[in-house]
Amino acid sequence: MLLPLAPARPHAPALLPAPPAAARPARLWASGGLARGAGGGVRRGALASEKPPAVAAAETAGGGEEAGGGGGVYDAIVVGSGIGGLVAATQLAAKGARVLVLEKYLIPGGSSGYYRRDGFTFDVGSSVMFGFSDKGNLNLITQALEAVGRRMQVLPDPSTVHFHLPGDLSVLVHRKYEDFLNELISKFPHEEEGILQFYGTCWKIFNSLNSLELKSLEEPLYLFGQFFQKPLECLTLAYYLPQNAGDIARKFIKDQKLLSFIDAECFIVSTVNALQTPMINASMVLCDRHFGGINYPVGGVGGIATSLADGLVDKGSEIRYKANVTNVILENGKAVGVRLSNGKEFFAKTVISNATRWDTFGKLLKDKELPEEEKNFQKNYVKAPSFLSIHMGVKASVLPAGTDCHHFVLEDDWNNLEKPYGSIFLSIPTVLDPSLAPEGHHILHIFTTAGIEDWEGLSRKEYEEKKEAVANEIIIRLEKKLFPGLQDSIVLKEVSSCLPCSPKTHRRFLARNDGTYGPMPRGKPKGLLAMPFNTTSIDGLYCVGDSCFPGQGVIAVAFSGVMCAHRVAADIGLEQRSPVLDAGLLGLLRWLRTLA
After folding, report:
1. Which helix (H) or strand (E) holds 569?
2. Confidence (pLDDT) at 4
3. Three-class SS state of 433
4. Of 405, 557, 445, 548, which is closest to residue 126 (Cα–Cα)?
5. Phi and psi of 114, rounded to 5°?
6. What does the pLDDT look like over 308-352, one tens digit per residue?
7. Peptide bond into 220 cis (omega under 30)
8. CA nearest neighbour of 281 among 590, 521, 568
9. pLDDT band at 2 (very low <50, low <70, confident <90, very high)
10. Of 127, 473, 583, 589, which residue is 20 to 30 A from 121 by alpha carbon distance?
11. 409-452: per-residue pLDDT in tens?
C-alpha cells in the first residue's frame, strides 16, 4: 500500500493497495523516484551503489568534519539523527526554522538505520513499525514525513508478533483486534472478562490520546486549549498518567500465566515487565498495532530516516555527516552552539540533543556540574540493557510456508524473561519485502538483551570468540524451537567486524552510553510521572529521544520529537506562547516529578 504524505483531498482514500509481491518495486526513495536500469527495470542493487540524496548532497557540500563551521546562526542545532532528532528537526523546518542536524555516522537513523552485505539489506534495529498508518493522531511517523512532503510505500503486516512461551503457550497477535481477542480467550477461557476489561482499558486510554492534537505538554496554551476542547479525554489521561500496566492488569486478571503473558507483551515494548511499564506507553502500542496496524516500509526501515533527512534538506535546512559533536557551548549559562571533535563550532538559538541524557550531561556537558533535575532523573531511572544482534541470510527453504514476520521466544522459564539472553526477538522482514534479499533467500534479524558488563575487559580475540559462542547458542535455540535445519541453511552470518552487534558496538557506532536503549525505572515507577520532558534546566538546551517522555520505541521517540519541536518553536517565536503561563506550568511539572 502507498501512504500519500502530501495533504490528502477530501474523501480521497488514504491507503492505496500495494502491488503484488512479484510486481513490487524493489525500492521507493523519499523523493518518490525508483532506481532503474538502462532498460527501465528496477535494479536490485540500486541502494548499494547509490547514496540517498541527503547523504550525497551533504558530501557534495563538504558535510563532514572536514567542513568548517559558519553558516550563520541557526534557529536550532540537533545533535544526532535518530528518529526523535529527525522528527524534531523536520517539524521545526516545516514551521520555517533554519535547522542544522549533526550526525556522527555516515547515514541518518541511529538505531533505525540500515546496512548492506552481499545483496542483503539489514535493518539495524527493530523492524516492527508503529505509528506508520494513514489514520488517527498517533500515526506520528506518517505525520512527520508528511510535514516535509515525503511519502513511502509500505506493506501491511497481517500480525504484530507470534509469541512462543513456556508451557507451549503460542499466541499470535493478529492485525485484527477481534482475531487477537478470540485467540487469547481461547487460551484462557476462564479469564474472558478480565481480558476484555484490561485491553478495553488500553483502548480507553488510546482513544483519548488519539483524539487529541499531540504537541508539547510543556506548552500551556496548547494544554489549556486541548482541555477545553476534550475535557473527558484529558482527565482520562491525567488519571492513568501515574499508573502502570501490571497494576491495571491485576485488577481484572488472576491467572498467573496470563499475567506473565502481559509481562511479555510489555517487555517487547519497554524491556521491563508490566508492573514497571507505564499504562499510557503500553496502551499506545497494544492498541496502535490493531488501529493502524504494523506497516513495513518497502526497501527497509532505514528509508524512514533517509526520507526525513531528504525532506529536511528540501525545506532549506541542513544535515552533516561525520560530524562528531563533543561539547555543547554555553555562554552565561545558556546553550548557544556546539563544538565538533575537530574543533569546528556551530552556533544556534537553541540546541537539541538526541543523545541519551547520560551522554548529554555526562559527555557533551562534562565540565558542568550535574543539574539537580538530572540527579533526580538518575535516581529514578537506570540505563536499560543493550542488545546483542545477529544478522543472517538463510536459504528460503528453511522457513515453513506461512511463517510470520516477527517472533518472540521464551522457551522454558518465565523467570528468564528479563535476564540477559533469556528471551529472543526475531524479525524476518523478507516475509513482507522479498527485495531485501537475493532471490531464494530470507533475512533473519535476531536480538536479545545483553548488558555491557558481559563484554568489558575482554581481549579482541576473547571478544570475537564470545560473540561467536553466544550467537551459535541462540541460533541452536531457534533451530530447536522454530526452524529445524537452520544452521545448515545459513549463507551469511555477520560475526566478524562489528556484527553481531554487542553492547560495545552500540556504544561505539550509535554513541549510546553503555549501549543502552533508553531508561529503565529503578523500582516500580509512578507511571510516566517521573519521566523528564524536552526542556532542561539549562536555558536553550533541549533533549529528545528515548530518555525523554514518553520513553522507548519508535512511536514514543517520534512523539518526543513532535513535542520538542513545538516547545522550541514557541520559544523562538514560531508558535504563540505565554511566558507567564510557561513559568507556572514548568514549575508545576518539575514539582510533580520530584513527587515521583
Report:
1. helix 554-571
2. 32
3. coil
4. 445
5. -155, 165
6. 999 999 999 999 999 999 999 999 999 999 999 999 999 999 999
7. no
8. 521
9. very low
10. 473
11. 999 899 999 998 999 999 999 999 999 999 999 999 998 988 77
Residue found by looking up cell 543472517 in the block: 392
Query: How far are the Cα atoms of 111, 329, 460 from residue 100, in angstroms, in the given order?
Result: 20, 15, 37
Cell triple for residue 580? 507567564
Three-state secondary structure of 203-238? HHHHHHHHCCCCCCCCCHHHHHHHHHHCHHHHHHHH
Which strand (E) or helix (H) includes residue 336? strand 334-340
pLDDT band for position 586 (cuts 50, 70, 90)? low
CB 443 within 8 A of CB 387: no
Report the C-alpha gap between 546 and 554 in whole angstroms: 9
Predicted confidence at residue 376, as pLDDT, reads 86
What is the rounded distance in angstroms from the CA atom of residue 38 to the CA atom of residue 15? 31
CA-based nearest residue to 291, from 405, 153, 160: 160
What is the C-alpha to C-alpha distance for residues 505 and 27, in angstroms, rounded to an integer?
Answer: 28
Q: Of 355, 161, 186, which Cα lies nearest the Cα of 266?
A: 161
Find where cell 550467537 sits: 471
Q: Is 438 left (phi over 0), alpha (psi -120 to 50) or beta?
A: beta
> Is the pLDDT score of 379 beyond 50?
yes
Instruction: Report residue 318 as a C-alpha cell.
Output: 541542513
Contact present, 312 and 304 (Cβ < 8 Å)? no
